[in-house]
Every structure is written in C-alpha cells, then in structure tokens.
Amino acid sequence: MKNTTLQTFGLIALSVLLAAFTLAPLVWLVIMSVSSASELTAKPLIWWPSEIDLSRYGDLLNIQSGSGERFLMALRNSLMTALTATLLALIVAVPAAFAFSRRGASLLLLFGFLATIMMPPITYVLPLYDIFGSVGLLNSSTALAIVYCAMLLPFATWLMKSNFDAIPAELDQASMVEGASTFYTLRRVVLPLALPAIAATFMLSFLAAWDEFFYALIFTSDLTAKTLPVAIADFTAGRVTDYGVIAAVGVLASLPPAIVAMCFQRFIVSGLAAGSVKG
Amino acid sequence: MIIKKSLEKWVLLSPALVVLGLVTLVPFVQTLWLSFTDTRITAITKPISWIGLENYIYALTDPDFIEALGRTMYFTLTSVGAEGILGVGVALLLNQKFPGRNILRVLIILPWAVPTIVNAVMWRLIYHPEYGALNSMLWQMGIITEYQSWLGDPDRALNMIIFADVWKNFPLVAYIALAALQTVPADLLQASRIEGAGPWRRFRTITLPWIFGPLLVVLILRTIEAFRVFDIVYVMTRGGPSDSTKTASFFVYQEYFSYLRSGSGASYAVLLAAISAVLITIYYIGARRQVQG
Amino acid sequence: MIKNKKLLLPVSALALALMTSAAAADTKLNALFMSQAAYSEEDVKAMVTTFEENNSGITVELEFVPYEALHDKIITSAAAGDSGYDVVLYDVVWPAEFAEGGFLTDLTSRVPKNVGNKIFDGAWTTVTYNDRIYGMPWILDTKYLFFNRELLAQAGIETPPTTWAEVMEQSRILKDKGVVEYPLVWSWSQSEAMICDYTTLVAANGGHFFKDGKPAFDQGGARAAIDYMVTSLNDGLTNPASTEYFEEDVRRVFSNGEAAFAMNWTYMNALVNDPTESKVAGKVGVMPAPGVEGISTASAVNGSMGLGIPSNSPHQDEAWALISYLTSKNVQENYAKLSLPVWKDSYSVASVTNGQEELVAAASKAIAVMSPRPVVPAYTEVSNILQKHLHSILLGQESTDDALADAAKRVSRIR
C-alpha cells in the first residue's frame, strides 16, 4: 500500500523532530568546542560563534601541552585496553560458543555465564582490587584488560553462539567426517561463515570496553593506565573555567566510537538482532 | 568417541571458565564472605572478626540505603520504560517508507555511540543553571521567564539524569525493535486489516507480540545496566542535591572507598546483587506469561 | 688515528653520562595533587621542574584530580604497591582517618626539630594526629570575604561590613537599590565546600559540631549559622544557584560582577584581580570573614592541606626530598600569589606582600582565629551526613529542626 501525501508529510515532520532531538545536543557540543570562552558564558547564549576557534583541539592533540598530554595518554590507554580486552574476549568466547552450539554444552551453563554480567560490578570490585593489588597489577592496562575481557565474554559468547546456530551443522559435520580436527573445522569451515558475526561481536565489545568507567576509576591512578572516561571525569570537575575545552574533549572522545558505529552499523545491528532474536 | 566429545566440550569451554571463574566467581564468593565480617580497608593488617548477620541487619535498617534502593528502582523503571516506548515508536517510524529514512536510520545511532561519560558531561553543560543551553533556549522561546536550576533541585535532578540516559540509550532499543519489525510477516498484517482491525489493534495483536521477544531481551539488558547506574551520576551530580540522586551503586562505592567499611559495603553489594537477580527473574517470568497469555 | 682519539673522549664521556643518568633516573616519583583552589597546575609544574633540575636522577609524574576525588584516590591507590603514589596532597580533615588506617607514613622523625615554631600552629594541625606528624603543611588556607568596592559604592555603602549581620544589611541595601540582584554568592553545593562556609559561620557564632562527643550542631551557634544561611537564601540575598556551586563557580560569578560579596579561598584574590580572568579586576576588597557582635570579631575555617608519603611508597627518601623542597620557605615565597606560605616570617617578606597587602593583612587576622572541623577518624562520613541534611534545609526539603535531628541521629549510628 502507498502512503498518502498527508501521511508522508506527517512522517517527515516526525522524522525532522526525531533528527532534531537526536542531533541538537551533539551539534551544540561541537559548536561549544569552537566558540570563544566569553561567548559560552553570555546570557542568553550566543548560539553561533563569531569566530571559529580551533585552538582547543590544537592543545588537546599536542602532547607538549598539559591537557594534550593527559588527553593523548588516556586515548592511548583506552585504545590499548579496549583492543586487548576485545581480542582476548573473542579468542575465549569463540571456542566456548562453539561448545554451546555444536558440542551440546548445557545451556544452563550459558545462563550461568550471563548471570555473571547481571551482577552489578560493585559486587566484584573490592576482591578484584585486593587481588590486583597483591600481584602488583593495580594502575595497569593489563588489569583493566583482564576485567574487561570477563565483562565482555558472556555477551560475546551468547552472540557468537546464536550466530553459529544459524550456520547449518551439516557443513562442519561433513568436515569432521572427513577426519578434520575440531580446531581445523572451527577455523576453516565455521569461522569464515561467521565472519560478519565476529565483526559485529568485535565492535559491540570494543564499544562496551571503550565506555567502561567504574573499574577504570578504581583500578587506575595516573597517566600510565587511566582511560579516557576517567580522564574526562577529572577534566571536567577541576579548575576549568572554559567549557569549550570540556566540549572539545567530549567531541574527540566520541569520534572513535561514532565512526565505528556509523561505518559498521549494518554489522552491529544485524549481530545484535541475531543475538536477541535467537537468544 | 562420546567420551572424547564430552572431554572436547570442556576443553573448548575451559578458557572461558577460567576467566569467568577468576574474575567473577572468586570475587563474588569473597564479597559474600566479606559481608559477614567487620573488615575495613586499611593499609595495615588488622584483625578481622566474623560478625554474622550484623552487617545485613544494619543495612536493612539503614533508611539511607532503603532510599537509595528506591531511587535506583525509580531510575531503572522510568528510564528503561521510556527507552522502550520511545525506541518502539522510533522503530515504527523508521519502518515506514518516506524520503530521508535511510539517513535517519544511520544518524540515530550517534547518541548510542557517545561514551556514557561524555554524555553525562554534555548534559551537565546543557543543564547549567546560568550558561546552559536548555535555560537559554527555553527562555528565548518564552517558555520560561526565569532561568531554572535543573540539577540543583532535588525534585527534578534525578529526572533530568533519566532524560540524559534515555537520550543516549533509546537508539539501541529502536534498532532491535526495527530489526524485529522487519520480520513481521506482511500477510498477517494484511489479514488483520481485512478483518477490520485498526492500526492500534494491529499493533497490539500482531506487531507487538511478534517483536516482544527481541524487545524483552534488549530491555532486560538495559535493566541490568540501569540498575547498576554509577558513572552518569558520578559526573552529573555526585549524588546531590541533598542525596536526591545517590543511587545504590554510588552508595556502596561510598561505603567502600569513602568510609572504608569493606565488610559492611560488601553486605550492601550482596543485597544489590540479590535484588538484581530477583528483578530480572520477575521481568522474565512476567514477560513469558504475557507472551503466552 | 688522532682524529679517532679526539673523538674518543667526548664519546666516552657521553656514554658515561648516559649510563649514570640511566642509573640514577631509576627513581620516578608519582605525586597526587588537586586541580582546585590554591596553587595552579602551572605553579606546581614549575616548582617540580626546578626540583628535577636540582635533583638529577629523580623525575616526578604529576597527577591532578578534583578535590572531590582526592580522598578516594589516596585510598584506592594504597594497595597499588610500587605503582601507587609517592607524594600525596591531603586535606586537614583526613589525618585522623589516614593515620588510623595506616595509609600515611609517620614522618615525625624526618621533620627537623627547629622548624616547629617557624610554621603556624594551624598549619601543623593539618599533618598531626595524636602527636605524630604525617607530612609537612603546604597550603595554609582559609575562606575570606571578598567584596566588590564598586558595587558597594554604587549602593552608597562606605565601609565594608564588620559583622555577619552587617553583611546581611548591606546586601539588603544592594538588592533594594537594584545594584545587583543577588549580592551574596557561596559554594553551597552538597560538598565539603559547603561545610567550609558553614564552619566559618559556626565559628563566628561561637557554635560547636560536637560537645562532649555528642552532636551539638542542632543548638547554639551552630543552629544560628544554618539559620543565617537559610535567611539569606529566603530573602533573595544569596544567589539561589549557590546551592549547586563549587569554588570555581563562585569565582566566575564574582568575576563577572554579578555578586557584591563572595566567600572563597586565597587563590581567588589573585585571579579576580587579573584582567584576563575577571571583569572586576582592581575593584575587589578582601577581608577576614567577619564575626558576630559580642561573640567574635572575625571568623575562619582551617582549610589547610599537607603533603605526605603513602605507606606503600618505595621511594620514601626521594619523596621526602620533594616534600621538603615544595614546602620550603623560598619556594613558597616565590609562589605566594595563589597560596600563602605556611611560614610565619614570610608574611613580612616583600615578595609575598607586594601587590597583595590587603590579603596578607586579612590572612594575619584570619590565621589567628582559624577553626577546625571535627577531628575524628570518621570525619568523611560525619561531613557527608551534614552535607546531606544541611543541603536539604537550604533547598527547603526539610525543616531545620527535623533535618538537624535526623543528622544527629544518623551521626550517632556511625559504626
């Protein structure tokens, strides 16, 4: 059936509203980041800067400046931690998912996995803090990567399992019958077919790790391991009179996940959908 | 062969079991143990004694904790509820055919990609009592005659945080709902239309049941996340004004690292975990019944 | 060959230099500071750079966190062993708790015996618990009353207030004449900053937090202090946004000329008189917070901070060297614009007094009357309870009587 003109008009009006609701705060964040400090403290606000001021970005991307050092180090830590954790989680989750999908591992155990992420992190944080302290891993990216790996693992296993389920079992059975090992079958037959799912899982996990704040706040204390979310929280609560700096930090910290999300949106959505429909 | 297969199953599972065991199970058991002791965080060794249920009795008679729990419940239900409604609405919109639909589908992922902390910081700036965009905008549009205190008013602050949370998280719900909507068979809808069902009835009797499963999964996911809310509060209000945004996780954090009572903090944490489990179970059972009934 | 020989010397010298510096550069100190009030990050960095130049082999990594995060950071890094902090800045209200928990190294034996009298007693309080010394005082600070001379003159007020009652009266005049909408601005967010303003008023009114170990903030001078706060808010004399302000917000409002009176720390004096930071530069007066007739002539809160060494630091000697340097009289006198020295003699040194005579005069009076916040190991919790209930009074959520009774009940429940 076709929409009438009136209906189309209504739909467009609604979608303009939706776009404004979604984008306005972000656009304003970007405008703040290039407005002068005095324009940001005008009453009422000046919505469009008289002059585009990019100096904050210059500062933040310059390792020599104080805020630049803090930002860039945190960026490095965030990238390192999130990537390591995501890779680890995938390496561990894929065989587990295969066991659940093909080797009849009990689904109850899978619920057990999922139950671990249902608990609030506050239930784990103190013993973990003691353990990492006793082995000298506090304030290190390693400790965070390990915790994040455990945090990502259940969801990654679940996603991968539901995607494996969608691959016809005859394919890998055939390979097994021919005498190939499970490892070979997994690597050569199943994984290539599950590549889109792996990409989706990878990106979802990466975004979750990039976003994590609570563990990072407690387990890190300085530039060597502090991640972006913690650095941003510190940036914004101290002696900052220029809101533009805060906005610029926010814009820069949102860019990597925003790019990943926009470019790989199809993967992410289909991966998520597969997980929630099948799961 | 069968023995080999079952052995292989455990080999495949073992890395995951080791990681989860060490990072979640062991700490959980330790937290449980801590909750029956009077342990404190110190830099020197102090004797620890087993005090039975004392921490739990204290926790359950602590009006501040009960209040924090209520607040967390409110936060969870309101924000997940709003995300569900808004998400489904947006999904229904994006499932229609109209010019610009594809661009919109890509754009609305943006809030979800913004890190939680950045989201919190951004809204804190927008809500600023003097230089915030919200006040300026409403004032210039003539909706308010006087600048308002958004995060400084105890009756309002939590709702303002919820708004920020909904803004960030509705896209996730919308995407899942949209993916599910695309699988609703057109002939079912068509048949219902022929029977004379209006749009609302078609939505209630066919579309909603059809997308309910996936929707439930994402809402449970959001519930789990919302119930542990900490980061957005830490940045936006630090629990103020007058404790009106102090959520349960924040409360436990404070018991640990501000008051250094790890034993007592652990009992709060265990209670949270228990409530979290109960909440999810109720959700799950209730939802199943609705699907079947 | 000869050429080669000529080369050999500088090369080997260079190699030697590299080796020794590599060996000595082993010590990296992690130091934790705050990014609020007192010395600016730039000042601390400059001090540390000079220290590194004078102490080859020691490098210092600086970490700045907001005051709100400082306490918890010191605690959470305590288990971090070698990768924790070696020097930490801590507030006057924490030594009891940190000493009881063993978080700080007892430095009593390291502190030179002869400096005792040269440093203000109020500064020593910052680092002392049960007669043991846990570091060196570094920031000697209290909250002053800043006023905008121009706005006062516009309202026809010739002399700044000498009592808190007069602050209220003058504010009323300023408001009635339409000179400024909200004459007073404070940092009354639910935070330690509010407790500092409150303590000042409690001290002015001769009140106490505790009497004989029992909560006394619901009576006498303490009660008068909260009543004063409430009245100033209800009468529209205090900027209502004060209840969500921290020190930096106060500074910004005052610097914009939107308030006639403001309570803030020493650091604001230099910044409100800096034309690049402030629209009211040169028009600002500073005085000790006033007193209450018949009770006090001036009032002040002890907002000092000290530098200590966490007990897990593996570099105690180097850390002490850094602390000694940062707290030395010379360094403090060179950076006296944002924070005044802890040394008594410094207050007559030209480099300290020049250009800020009024502040130094105010400091001399205020330091003498500085009041402590309660010295108890559970201070953080006491303060949080008070913050919550005072805030609910200020926001009109609860009646003063109920809130204070609740607070007293809650404090007595502390374990």
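qc> Chain C is about 45% helix and 15% strand.
qc> done
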